[in-house]
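WARN retry 2 of 3 for item q-0093 after timeout on previous attempt; input resubmitted unchanged.
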Amino acid sequence: MADMKEDQTHNAEHADNAPNVEDARAPNIPKDPTEDARPPSAQQAQQVPEAEDLEPGEDEEYDSEDDADPADEMAHFNWEGLHERYHDTINTASAQEQELLREFSELVNYFNIWANAGANQESDRTFHRLRTRMTYVQNSEQKLENTRQHYIGVVQAFESALNLLRNSGFGG
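OK item q-0093 returned
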C-alpha cells in the first residue's frame, strides 16, 4: 500500500515537472483564445440527462466512486430502457433523414424544371438560327444558280452571234 502511495506521489511530481504546452510555445507568439475551445460533439448535444437513466428508487447520489463499498450490490441498469431510447433516437434520426431526402428530392425536381426550361429555350433559339442560316444559304444558292444561268445565256448568245457571222461570210 505504501508503494502505491509512493507511485502516486512520484507520478504527481512528474506531472508537475512536465513541460506545459504554453511553455513550449515560442515567447513571441500570442496564445489564441479559441485554441482550447472545441465544438461540442453531436453525441453530447443529443445525450439524455442522467436523471432519466435511473429507475424509481435509484435516485441515490454518489459523490465519487471511492465512496462505494465493494461489498455493496451494484444498482441494476435498465437495459430495456436503453433499448427503447436507442430505438426512439434512431427512429427520430431516420425521420429527420427522410424529411431531408424528401426536401432534397423536391429541390432536385425544381432544378430539373429550371434546367429543362433553359435547355428548351436554347434549343428553340438554335433551331431559329439554323432556319435563318438555311434560308440565307438557300437564297445564296438561288442567286448563284441565276448568275450561272445568266452566264450560260450570255455564252450561248455569243456563240449564236459568232455562228451568224461565220455563216454570213465575215468569219474566216
